[in-house]
Structure formats: C-alpha cells, structure tokens
Amino acid sequence: MRRLALIIFLLISILPLSRAQMWNGTDTLYGNEWIHYDQSYFKISVAADGIYRIPYATLSAAG
Questions:
Q1: What are phi and psi of 55, to 5 degrees?
Q2: Which run of H or of E encompasses 38?
C-alpha cells in the first residue's frame, strides 16, 4: 500500500511538467512566434496531404 501511494504521488508530481507549451528559459513558446503582423501571408489550400512544390513564377503571379 505504501508503494502504491508513492507511485501515485510521483505521478501526480510529474503531471504539471508535461504541458503542451514549450519552454525557453522563462518564456513560454506557443508556436506563433514566426508570425509578423506587419507582413502579408498567403493561405494555399491543397486537395490531399503531401509535399508540394510551388514554383517561384506561380507565387510571383499570385502577388
């Protein structure tokens, strides 16, 4: 019984460390650090999952 209580205590102690956000020192990284709100972005829809090559000429023609 004592061993079970120790295991439960350790699991409960470790749970707060397993969060979805990444830590960089004291900063929390959310995954949107690459967004610069003063720039414009294009959303490109695709029919199926995979790797696609988009030529520079196509991107230039889109604006």
A1: -65, 155
A2: none
pTM more than 0.70: no
Domains contained in the chain, number: 1
Whose tokens are 């230039």? That residue is 60
Q: Report residue 29 as tokens.
A: 């990284």
3-state secondary structure of 29: strand
Does residue 53 fall inside a structural domain?
Answer: yes
Task: Supply the range of the domain harboring residue 39.
Answer: 20-63
Which residues, in sequence order, are CB contacts of 63 under 8 Å at separation 6+? 42
The conformation of residue 20, written as its DSSP 8-state character, comes to S
pLDDT tens per residue, range 12-48: 887 766 666 666 677 777 778 788 999 988 888 999 9
